[in-house]
Amino acid sequence: MRLAASSIQLPDVWSSDDFAVQEAVVATGHPRLDAQLPGGGWPVGSLVEILQSQPAQHAWQLLLPALSQASRQQVGPTVLVGAPYQPFGPALQGQGLPAERLLWVKAEKGAARLWATEQALRCADVVAVLAWLPQARSPELRRLHLAAHQHGKLLFVFRGLQSRQEASPARLRLQVVGTLDMQVEVFKRQGPPLQEPISLPAHPARLAALLAARKRRTVPAPPTPIRSHGLDRTLTLAG
Fold first, then answer.
1. What DSSP designation does 191 have?
2. Which residues form the signal peptide (predicted)?
3. Distance between CA 225 and CA 86 in Å, rounded?
């Protein structure tokens, strides 16, 4: 006898049909990325997994536009669990995310980070959760995915590039690399994976314009002459 999936309700088990309804999304702030994501933005109530070669690489550049928008629409904190560096409040505030709306949870052990992440997802006032969970296993990620779904939260989990080959319950998985630009590879989404990475600016447009203007105004300093003690001559060091 075959039972329909809808006839069994288990609290910690879900199937692909459980999230067939249209999801709410928050625009990423990157139009080229929005065009490739189901619904046109970051899904609310679903785990988004971001793989990086370095723990903090491009995290804020990628997520800050959406977090700023979400914070304007809802009063509450954005929770950072296990962030590798303390965020620089004035820079984030300059891009629309007030420093007083950030809650940084310092936790070294993986179990403590998982616990803090789940508790934050269950808090009614929390707007979004960013968690660095390099050692998390698939069942643990599934539990967080369910908590995000049940409480309607934005959830971003950061892991290393080596996690790409591991099973994950995330419906959206991205790999972000690059230095001058962000190369965003969407290798798991509803529908086929992207064939080519999406190139996005590593700095917001406003900051990029300021940096470019500053570079144009900068006059190179003249080379510093150094007197050689061994030979009575002047050496010029190339910049």
1. B
2. none
3. 41
**CA–CA dist 168, 223 (Å, integer):** 54
Q: Return d(Cα 85, Cα 147) in angstroms, integer.
A: 26
Structure tokens at 180: 């001058």
- DSSP per residue, the chain: ----GGG---TT---GGGG-SPPPEE--S-HHHHTTSGGGSEETTEEEEEEESSTTTTHHHHHHHHHHHHHHHS-SPEEEES-SS---HHHHHHTT--GGGEEEE---SHHHHHHHHHHHHT-TT--EEEEE-TT--HHHHHHHHHHHHHHT-EEEEEEEGGGGGS----SEEEEEE-SSEEEEEEEEBSBSPPSSPEEEESS-HHHHHHHHHHHHHPPPPPPPEEE-SSSSSEEE---
Residues of the chain predicted below pLDDT 70: 1-22, 203-239
Q: Tell me, what amino acid is at 130?
A: L
- The 3-state DSSP class for residue 131 equals strand
Q: Which residue type occupies 47? A: L
Pick left, alpha or beta for residue 226 (phi over 0 → left; psi -120 to 50 → alpha; otherwise beta).
beta
Quick one: which of 177, 181, 215, 220 has its CA closest to 51? 177
Which structural domains are found in the chain, ordered by start? Answer: 22-219 (3.40.50.300)
Query: DSSP of 70-109, one letter per residue?
Result: HHHHS-SPEEEES-SS---HHHHHHTT--GGGEEEE---S
pTM comes to 0.76
Closest CA to 175 of 164, 166, 167: 164
